[in-house]
């Protein structure tokens, strides 16, 4: 790790006022924190690494922000796998936040140089970056190594950290280089790794790649969701597209009757083919643009439009590869 230390204050266990932290969270975020969220925050305020093994939708993201309530100048930097996820988190953030990606840099007044300068100067409390940016030497020199940034950085976060194990290697090799990100942070800055998917072999990989401390605090909250079930449909037509025709209900009379559905495919060719077939089968009243395809060859502007229309419910069926929301 870097030998330079951040200047934020770290506390002993008895020095943290949990009631104040709870009240401040309610004041800033409008919700009362769970005990496990307070425990995660206390661990970070003590300078300890944290493993957040918490189900989707339970409130992991708020744990990235709560440690910043200790001081109006503290910052955190979050490594996120998907552009769409970063943009959503920035959009809903209660604290000043910025996502660093191709899309936001192009739109930023003054471009990349001005964005990086604003980050260093503390205009944003939360900075969301991709693994590729986290390991990029230009970003390190422009942001991570700057004295003012290092003075006020409170914590680093690896969100969806299971991707270290699942995506590292030939797909997105920068995941296996995230130790560089850890090493470029000040030596006393704790790291939080968060995921809803931490089986033992994945967690072992994350511990190694991210150089987590042996005494890292492990917080686990069940992701059991009684309203979610797993089902399997038998393929009746071999390799033809007919087996996905069911996603447009026979009795649908209006767009809202068609459930919003994402269909994942392994190839761009299959993706385009399935979208074409579904548009062919769609009833006359169903707009063709309510069925869309999304893959690596779709341009950034069109991807952004599809994501926006999907959120609005205008796209009901999205046939896609795992490029959905991927960093660009």
TrEMBL record:
<dbReference type="InterPro" id="IPR014001">
    <property type="entry name" value="Helicase_ATP-bd"/>
</dbReference>
<dbReference type="InterPro" id="IPR011545">
    <property type="entry name" value="DEAD/DEAH_box_helicase_dom"/>
</dbReference>
<feature type="domain" description="Helicase ATP-binding">
    <location>
        <begin position="41"/>
        <end position="216"/>
    </location>
</feature>
<dbReference type="GO" id="GO:0003677">
    <property type="term" value="F:DNA binding"/>
</dbReference>
<protein>
    <recommendedName>
        <fullName>DNA 3'-5' helicase</fullName>
        <ecNumber>5.6.2.4</ecNumber>
    </recommendedName>
</protein>
<keyword id="KW-0413">Isomerase</keyword>
<keyword id="KW-0378">Hydrolase</keyword>
<dbReference type="GO" id="GO:0006281">
    <property type="term" value="P:DNA repair"/>
</dbReference>
<comment type="similarity">
    <text>Belongs to the helicase family. RecQ subfamily.</text>
</comment>
<dbReference type="Pfam" id="PF00270">
    <property type="entry name" value="DEAD"/>
</dbReference>
<dbReference type="InterPro" id="IPR027417">
    <property type="entry name" value="P-loop_NTPase"/>
</dbReference>
<dbReference type="GO" id="GO:0009378">
    <property type="term" value="F:four-way junction helicase activity"/>
</dbReference>
<dbReference type="GO" id="GO:0006310">
    <property type="term" value="P:DNA recombination"/>
</dbReference>
<dbReference type="GO" id="GO:0043138">
    <property type="term" value="F:3'-5' DNA helicase activity"/>
</dbReference>
<dbReference type="GO" id="GO:0005737">
    <property type="term" value="C:cytoplasm"/>
</dbReference>
<dbReference type="GO" id="GO:0005694">
    <property type="term" value="C:chromosome"/>
</dbReference>
<dbReference type="GO" id="GO:0016787">
    <property type="term" value="F:hydrolase activity"/>
</dbReference>
<keyword id="KW-0238">DNA-binding</keyword>
<dbReference type="GO" id="GO:0005524">
    <property type="term" value="F:ATP binding"/>
</dbReference>
